[in-house]
Write a structure and sequence with these properties.
The protein has one helix spanning about 40, and strands spanning about 10, 25, 30-35, 50, 55-60, 70-75, 80, 95-100, 105, 125-130, 135, 150, 155-160, 175, 180, 200. It has about 200 residues and is mostly beta strands. It has an eight-stranded parallel sheet, with no helix packed on it. Strands 1-3-5-7-9 form a five-stranded parallel sheet, with no helix packed on it. The model has no long low-confidence stretch (mean pLDDT about 95).
Length: about 200
C-alpha cells in the first residue's frame, strides 16, 4: 500500500485496469474524487479496500457486490454520502466494514439501514462501524441475525425502537447506539448479550 504519505489528487484511472489487484490500500493521504461505479467489476479479485482518512466523496459503488472475494472495507473519515446499496449477501468472506465519519444517509435517504439485512449471510462478520454518519431509518429486525462482535451505529439519525431481536447477537462485545433518535424501552432481551463489554445507549 501507499498509506500515511502526502499523496494528493485522484486515484489514476489506470489503477482500475489492474484486474488481478487484491489489495487497494491508500489510507491517510490527501486523495479525493469519487470511485468508479463499476469498481467491483474492474477489480473482481479485490479482497481489501482501504481508503480511510482521505477526502473521497460520492457513493460507495454497488458493483462491489461483484467482488466476491471482498473481505474488508475500510473507508472511515472521508466524505462518502448517499445510500449504502452494496449487497453483501454474496460476499461470503466479508468480515469488516469501517465507514465511520462520512456522510452516508445524507439527503432524503429515509431507509438507510436496509443494507444491514444483506449482511446476515456474512458468517465471518466481525465488525460494523458506521458511527458519525447521517443514517436514517429504523433498525431492521434482521439485525439479530448478524454474527458481528462489534456494532457501532452511534451518532446517526436512527429512530424507532430497539428491536427485541438484538438479544440474538450472542457474539457481540461492543454495542454503540448512542446519539440517535431512538424511542421506547430498552428490550429485556439485551440481557442475553453475555459477552458485551461496552454498551452505550445515551441520547
Amino acid at each position: 500500500g501507499f498509506g500515511d504519505n502526502r499523496l494528493n489528487g485522484n486515484i489514476p484511472v489506470s489503477v482500475y485496469n489492474l484486474s488481478q489487484l487484491e489489495v487497494l490500500s491508500l489510507p491517510k493521504n490527501q486523495l479525493h474524487g469519487t470511485l468508479p461505479s463499476a469498481l467491483g467489476l474492474m477489480l473482481p479479485r479485490l479482497q481489501f479496500l482501504q481508503l480511510r482518512d482521505n477526502q473521497f466523496w460520492g457513493v460507495l459503488p454497488a458493483s462491489l457486490s461483484n467482488a466476491s472475494e471482498l473481505g474488508r472495507i475500510d473507508i472511515g473519515d472521508n466524505g462518502f454520502s448517499g445510500r449504502i446499496v452494496v449487497d453483501f449477501g454474496d460476499l461470503q468472506n466479508f468480515t469488516l466494514l469501517y465507514a465511520e465519519y462520512n456522510n452516508f444517509g445524507s439527503g432524503e435517504v429515509l431507509d438507510g439501514l436496509q443494507f444491514l439485512s444483506t449482511m446476515t449471510n456474512c458468517s465471518q462478520l466481525l465488525a460494523i462501524d458506521l458511527g458519525g454518519n447521517q443514517l436514517k431509518g429504523i433498525l431492521p429486525n434482521s439485525i439479530g441475525n448478524l454474527s458481528s462482535q462489534y456494532l457501532l451505529l452511534g451518532g446517526n439519525q436512527i429512530y424507532g425502537e430497539i428491536p427485541s431481536t438484538v438479544g440474538n447477537l450472542i457474539s457481540l462485545t461492543t454495542l454503540f447506539l448512542d446519539s440517535n433518535q431512538l424511542t421506547g424501552t430498552v428490550p429485556s432481551t439485551i440481557g442475553y448479550l453475555h459477552k458485551v463489554q461496552r454498551l452505550s445507549l445515551q441520547s
